[in-house]
Design brief:
The chain is α+β, with helices and mostly antiparallel strands. Among the domains are: about 30 residues; about 70 residues, Sandwich (Immunoglobulin-like), CATH 2.60.40.10; about 80 residues, Immunoglobulins (Immunoglobulin-like); about 70 residues, Immunoglobulin-like. About 15% of the residues lie in helices and about 30% in strands. It has 5 helices and 20 strands. The N terminus is likely disordered.
Length: about 375
């Protein structure tokens, strides 16, 4: 077989009588070269191509967050994929939406609504996400008492009782102490053996806390002795035999006095009876009824004093001219000398008599 190679201008190949064209081979080679170059370029710029196709995304645990006032805020703690996507937070502060972008520090000292902006980057574009942050005050204030139970004696101790004297401290994590609203009981009935003084503390956000001071009320030493003596007398009276007559105690020892001598009888002329009185009878003496004196309290009166008058002055004016069948004590603990108004006060004696009067506090 004779093979003849004929190199022609069109690069055809002649084998015997067969002719093979060289153009498709060249084209294929050129395509392979182009593909290799494109692949190399694509491999080199693969990250740019991916970033061009896919948006950078940042995943947050929550897009709405509520924080307690004066708490530390870490914006990076809410990012789920911090290592997968390059990102940054626009500043490390919160952006106040109420003041159109004014930044505040991350200690969240101001109650308000804020906005945190996260920006994820790639080599082609940026992608932004926002998180809404609301700073609130939901913690109640704190009120501390020196004690939860006290014992007061009726009289001066109940009269001068001041609920504020038993408060140890008040505080709040946001509201200043001088702006906290304190309410407490100011009316008591110390004739009862148990009373409660209730305190209520409110902050500027409306959070409240309550405390209770329990008050045990007892009689003073003198009144206690009188009550005990009265009880003993009542028990002795109840145990006494009703048929027995009490034997009066001798007032003094009897003395031996000589018996008087009988006078000698002397004849006295009998009076002449002219006529007998008809149906004359000597009246029997009437016994005066005996009864115990009625217990009383007298001299009770109302008074009017200007605001700021001391409790001692009020007590002195109320007791002036007051007397009773027994010891009289006065309860005017509910009088608030710093607030104008009319207040009731109570008089009571140890024999059970009760009376009331009023004290009017004026603004003058």
């Amino acid at each position: 077989m004779i093979m003849e190679w004929h190199y022609a201008h069109d690069a055809d190949i002649t084998i015997g009588e067969k002719h093979i064209s060289h153009a498709p081979r060249v084209i294929l080679t050129m395509l392979l070269v182009v593909l290799c170059v494109a692949g190399g370029v694509g491999f080199y710029f693969r990250e740019y191509i991916y970033d061009y196709i896919a948006d950078p995304d940042i995943v947050l645990t929550n897009e709405k967050v509520k924080l307690e006032v004066d708490s530390k805020f870490d914006p990076y703690a809410y990012v789920v994929n911090p290592d997968n996507v390059p990102y940054e937070v626009i500043g490390a502060e919160l952006v106040d939406t109420k003041t159109k972008g004014r930044k505040v520090d991350t200690t969240t000292k101001t109650i308000s609504k804020y906005e945190v902006r996260y920006v994820a980057h790639n080599k082609v574009r940026d992608h932004e996400k926002k998180m809404d942050v609301e700073v609130v005050d939901e913690k109640p204030p704190i009120i501390e008492l020196d004690t939860e139970v006290i014992v007061l004696k009726r009289g001066l101790e109940t009269f001068y009782f001041n609920p504020l004297a038993y408060i140890k401290s008040i505080s709040d994590d946001y509201t200043a102490s001088d702006k906290l609203k304190l309410e407490y009981s100011d009316k008591f009935n110390f004739r009862e053996d148990m009373q409660q003084c209730k305190y209520k503390l409110t902050d500027e956000a409306g959070n409240t806390v309550e405390k209770v001071l329990n008050i045990a009320v007892v009689n003073s030493d003198e009144e206690k002795q009188q009550k005990e003596q009265e009880q003993r007398d009542k028990e002795a009276e109840a145990n006494r035999d009703p048929n027995s007559t009490p034997t009066p105690k001798p007032t003094s020892k009897p003395t031996n006095t000589p018996k008087p001598k009988k006078p000698k009888a002397t004849a006295t002329p009998k009076p002449k009876v002219t006529s007998k009185p008809k149906n004359t009878a000597t009246p029997k003496p009437t016994k005066k009824p005996t009864s115990k004196p009625t217990p009383y309290i007298k001299g009770v009166h109302n008074i009017s004093v200007p605001k700021g008058t001391s409790q001692q002055t009020i007590m002195t004016k109320l007791m002036k001219g007051v007397s009773g069948s027994g010891s009289v004590w006065l309860d005017c603990s509910n009088v608030n000398t710093t607030k104008a108004g009319t207040y009731k006060v109570y008089f009571e004696s140890d024999d059970g008599v009760k009376k009331t009067a009023t004290v009017t506090i004026t603004d003058d």
